[in-house]
Recover the amino acids of this structure.
């Protein structure tokens, strides 16, 4: 695919929302993050912190009960919904109060996760699927946007496209599968591709090899969740989150080695990086 537009710094500036002087936490909505599992709280910590930094009003984390303490020690601003996965198919479970939902960091792609994703697809809220929530499935027609965040290995696993073919035609395959599945695909990597189900597609110009490290995808999921809450236009939220995630990595390498970045440091850089776009 030739002449794919780039989501530039100028476009981020034009579409980054302002914080209204008379706003309150309810203005920016409550997000639900379903993440982490017994013995694996780290991914939930990374996604939670990034979400809190990215414009939402309130964050609820649904995780294993034993993961609450470590997550809360790193992200005291979050609130928690223990055992939600056990109740996900309960007809009395009300998820209408959430503005956006993300699921997958620190979770396994098992039947339990699959059942939860199936339920969430019917809720009608913007939904981010990452890590353990990325599986081969059909989506049908959904009421709200569904956003998949695969790296090349995950993309190959859920689509069957061989990695060697994907390497040379990543934009083509991302656009093709976004249209086929009716979802938005963020195909991560060098020149990350953001492909929308209606054929709209962008390349992201930010980011570098510092992002080639565990946990950076969890951070992106959190940023997507937070920005879906504070943007009026969900597409702008997706594009801005991907751009700013990479911009934080670019800021890191201006003074430090790309070898040394830790995923949580992207979130620590975000306040300064985002301010430079306002």
């Amino acid at each position: 695919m030739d002449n794919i537009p780039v989501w530039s710094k100028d476009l981020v500036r034009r579409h980054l929302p302002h914080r209204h002087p008379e706003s309150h936490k309810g203005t920016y909505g409550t997000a639900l993050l379903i993440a982490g599992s017994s013995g694996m709280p780290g991914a939930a910590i990374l996604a939670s912190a990034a979400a809190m930094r990215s414009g939402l009003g309130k964050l609820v984390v649904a995780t294993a009960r034993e993961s609450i303490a470590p997550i809360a020690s790193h992200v005291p601003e979050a609130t928690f919904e223990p055992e939600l996965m056990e109740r996900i198919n309960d007809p009395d479970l009300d998820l209408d109060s959430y503005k956006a939902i993300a699921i997958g960091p620190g979770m396994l792609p098992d039947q339990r996760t699959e059942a939860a994703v199936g339920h969430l697809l019917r809720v009608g809220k913007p939904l981010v699927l990452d890590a353990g929530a990325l599986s081969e499935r059909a989506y049908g027609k959904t009421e709200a946007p569904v956003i998949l965040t695969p790296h090349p290995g995950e993309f190959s696993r859920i689509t069957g496209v061989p990695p060697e073919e994907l390497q040379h035609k990543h934009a083509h395959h991302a656009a093709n599968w976004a249209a086929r599945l009716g979802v938005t695909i963020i195909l991560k990597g060098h020149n990350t591709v953001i492909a929308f189900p209606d054929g709209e597609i962008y390349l992201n110009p930010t980011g570098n090899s510092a992002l080639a490290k565990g946990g950076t995808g969890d951070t992106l999921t959190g940023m997507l969740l937070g920005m879906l809450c504070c943007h009026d236009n969900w597409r702008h939220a997706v594009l801005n989150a991907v751009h700013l995630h990479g911009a934080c990595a670019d800021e890191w390498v201006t003074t430090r080695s790309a070898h040394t970045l830790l995923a949580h440091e992207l979130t620590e850089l975000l306040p300064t990086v985002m301010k430079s776009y306002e």
